[in-house]
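Example 5.3 — Diacylglycerol kinase
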Amino acid sequence: MKYLLMYNPVSGRSKFKKKIKQIKRFFDKRNLEIDIYESKKAGDLELKAQHHAKDYDVFLVAGGDGTISEVVNGMMKSEIRPSLAILPCGTANDIAAILGVPRWLWLALRMYMKHEPVLMDINQMNDRYFVYTAASGVLSRISYDVSRRKIKKYGYLAYVFEAMRDFVKEYNYPCHIECDGKVLETDCMMILGLSSNRVGGMRLINFSKSKLNDGLFEIRVFTSRRRFRRFRLASSFIRGGKKLREDFHLVGKHFKIETDDNILWNADGEAAEKGNIEIRTIEKALSVYVSPRRKRKQF
Ligand SMILES: Nc1ncnc2c1ncn2[C@@H]1O[C@H](COP(=O)(O)OP(=O)(O)OP(=O)(O)O)[C@@H](O)[C@H]1O
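Solution (predicted structure tokens):
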């Protein structure tokens, strides 16, 4: 087995670099070949993943959701794809949590030595690939609007502060959604799409019933029709993403969403598209390492 460790030195609180020597030792001890690559700037890992996908069996990716998303975008552009194993060292680490990867590095590495990878769906927003979330409207900009300086200083709390500021802003925009033959037209304050039950470090146990390999994606349209709308939205999140009467929940393989040109879309926590989008799910597109528990529940 040939591994490539790719890491983003600025993920989370920028502390991963210190662990590299120990990781190298872990692999040397087991006579496993590992190359190491540090990203130099945003976008770097996508190109590295695309051009070297055929040269490795496993991409070991150390970073947060943005870093993993970059690598996945690179891998999806290659015909031959190695397996993906994550070492969580970002701020929210949603993707790692969805796959049940332990925060503790040694437990994660041992898990990768012991278990086989499984095939997981990957989603596409226009030309860009994403793993687990697409969103617009309230709260959807915070993951990429918060400065790295604040994340380094406050960690996850930096997202919480920014969420509180964004929550009081006015969001109301039209959307026309086509999903596998169904049509929905409404005004909304947020559209949240998930392939699992986690976003922004929160577990939304009542949001989704989909598996990670069933070719389906779920979208919740939070309308802006009722009074005290923000409080109702907050109460839905507090109750694990419980659906409210005035909201719509769609499940499908292909979504066409038309909205205002200035509406920004977030994909896996990064700024993605503006205006109209199409979302497709590519079934069982990528081989990933998951914990045995998640494998039973989510696959
Ligand atoms: N060498 C680099 N210098 C600056 N930015 C980088 C570099 N390599 C990658 N990036 C960018 O850093 C951003 C943040 O990375 P990442 O998402 O992994 O960390 P995070 O935001 O702390 O974690 P999370 O997304 O889990 O909250 C990504 O948008 C990525 O494209």
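Remark. Residues 8-12, 39-42, 44, 63-67, 70, 90-93, 151, 269-270 surround adenosine-5'-triphosphate (CB under 6 Å).
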